[in-house]
Amino acid sequence: MRSPLQVNFRNVQKSEAVEEKIREYAAKLEQFHNRITSCRVVVDAPHRNHQKGKLYHIQIDITLPGTEIVVNSNPSDNESHQDIYVAIRDAFDAAKRQLQDYVEVQRN
């Protein structure tokens, strides 16, 4: 990655453990596609629903030469996103799938 990974926390207290997990997932993406120029991750807990609890929203912006991949995990779609690590895992899984689709299009 040309630019260092950027991790921002909104409405969530910064956590070194969470940031380290994000760095691990980002490193795996970089192993999958070595032309990633930058990666920005935003961890947010925008809603406080008394029935569902705090749901985490993860946004990942990956910049590649000539394109950008954006992943937005929508917390209202998945109650398991009450666990920040599950929300991060799901967002990076979606990013990996989009990156795989991009690689396939580039090969053809």
Shape: globular
Q: Mean pLDDT, nearest integer? A: 87
The share of residues in extended strands comes to 25-35%
User: Which structural class should the secondary elements be placed in?
Assistant: alpha+beta
What is the overall number of helices? 2
Whole-number radius of gyration? 14 Å
**Range of helix content:** 25-40%
Instruction: Give the CA-CA distance, first to last residue.
Output: 24 Å
Strand order of the largest sheet: 1-2-3-4
Number of strands: 4
Low-confidence stretches: none
Report on the biggest sheet.
4 strands, mixed
* Element order: H for helix, E for strand: EHEEEH
What order do the helices and strands come in, and which of them pair?
Layout: E1 6-10, H1 16-32, E2 38-49, E3 53-64, E4 67-72, H2 84-107
Parallel strand pairs: 1-2
Antiparallel strand pairs: 2-3, 3-4
Helix pairs in contact: 1-2
How would you summarize what this structure contains?
Helix content is 38%, strand content 32%. It is of the alpha+beta class and 108 residues long.
Which descriptors would you attach to this protein?
four-stranded mixed beta sheet, globular, 38% helix, alpha+beta, 108 residues, 2 helices
